[in-house]
Amino acid sequence: MTSATARAPGRVNLIGDHTDYNGGLCLPFAIAPATSTTARSRGDDRLRIRSTAFPEVWSGHLADLTLEGREAMPDWVRYPAGVLWAAREDGWLLPGVDLVIDSELPLGAGLSSSAALECSVALAVGTLVDRPLDPGSRHRLAELCRRAETEFAGAPTGGMDQLVSLLAKPDHALLIDFTDTSVRPVPLALREAGLVVLVTDTGSAHQLVDAESGYAQRRAECERAAAALGLPRIGLAWPDDLSRLDDDVQQARARHVLSENARVEDTITAVTAGDWEAVGRILLSSHVSLRGDFAASTPALDLAVETAVEAGALGARLTGGGFGGSTIALVPEERASAVQTAIDTAFAAAGDPAPTHLVVLPSAGASVRTT
Ligand code: GLA
Q1: Choosing from 17, 20, 64, 161, which is the catalytic residue?
Q2: Single pTM value for the model
Q3: Among protein residues, the one whose CA lies closest to atom 2 of ligand 1
């Protein structure tokens, strides 16, 4: 086989944010928009990477796939090249390749465009070089993509996005337990319940690559809280431990992580019982916690959440890392367009740029075809 095309979806996180890197629980699902990568093997050691999202074509060699070599690469190239680097670190024998990338996902909207890109590259190239791609192997592939993102692209993210992009099932969310990264599909029959998830991209791109970013700061605060309690990760603390944290900020961050874990469990109970009103209430309390204890929201995210609920959503919250990006609202299908209009009107009244919306349902994980 000389070429393979893989399609890896973006995601929304139903609930469980800032829990993955803290050893907690999260419950994302894949959405239909995806990134496709076609990988072709070459007869030499050259690499060429082209993306429909950027004007330039990047050319290099297999020998450039080093942590020093990445310094000369444009930021966007570090994601696909990082996957090739991590694959070689994992022992893959790679030929030179041409990669052609095409993304339907908005960049920086908090819908995991980076993970979709990494996973599509990993799956396409993995197919080209005959790597096993069964669910167990995909688990390992997700870890390889996470390494590409954290170690090569420099974004200290937690691993949720890659796992759901590679392992999602239609009409299911994916429960991920980051104590051991085990996964379990959880039926999420929104369609049968006449519900949809309305995604609202506030248009203020969130930024994960930057030591000064809110995301990196929160991560560091959580690490300090865990260290103060003598734990490897703060998600392993018990609620009683919180009072042992002298620092108020650390205590608030830890309280979010522990309460968010409990909310993931409560959401699964409510989803399983078909109690969608309860799911909506839990989503909203997640937002309150992310806004207050975790300080990861923005006025635009808050406005989208409040307006959605006033206009008939069962619940809403920021989704993903926060500090910009998108919200999700759980909405009866027939109310979706009214909720959307209400949010547009509220943004216009506040003088904010018009947001963009997307109606999503839990979709399939990544797939691949060969030619
Ligand atoms: C981003 C990261 C994830 C996760 C979320 C917050 O999406 O990529 O790993 O940490 O933020 O839950």
Answers
A1: 161
A2: 0.96
A3: 157
